[in-house]
Amino acid sequence: MKVVSVALGAIVGAAAGFVAGVLLAPRSGAESRAMASDAMNDAWDSAVDKYEWSQQAVNEKFSTVKPGVDATTDELRAKVDLARERMDQLRDSLTVVTEDSEAAAADESAEAEAEEEVAEEEAAEAEAEAAEAEEEAAEDKKAEE
Q: Is residue 142 part of a domain?
């Protein structure tokens, strides 16, 4: 910003000095005004030429950079789309695995319940047999007495 201020000050100072020199020169007013007008027209034309040259240079740079940016943008979009597809696949496979795990857990739970019922039935049968054995033992003891 400081450089721009110094450069602008130098340009304004030079212009003011030029105008003062032209106006104070030993020429007639019409001739001085014509010279000043010519100098201003030359400066304006020079500024317009520099603007057009700069605009053309920027457009050329932009046209050389744009295809590379477009290609990179397309490549990144393709990678993002591929990543989204992969995430969807992973999400689907995770859903399948979760459903399979839940089904396996339900099957294991059902098997455990069935085994528990069998164990309870066997325990009940063992208790009944033990009770019968006790009754037989009691009857045998009474018969011996």
A: no
Residue 40 is assigned to a structural domain of this protein: yes
Rounded to whole angstroms, the Cα distance separating 128 from 115 reads 20
CA-angle at 33, arms to 29 and 37, nearest 5°: 175
pLDDT band at 23 (very low <50, low <70, confident <90, very high): low
Query: Is the residue at 46 inside a domain?
Result: yes
Structure tokens at 104: 């396996």
Taking the C-alpha atoms of residue 78 and residue 83, their distance in angstroms, rounded to an integer, is 9
For residue 49 the two structure tokens come to: 């030429």
Specify the pTM: 0.37
Between CA 33 and CA 41, with CA 39 as vertex, the angle to 5 degrees is 100
Over residues 29-45, the pLDDT tens digits come to 787 778 878 888 998 99
Identify the domain containing residue 127 by its residue range.
2-135
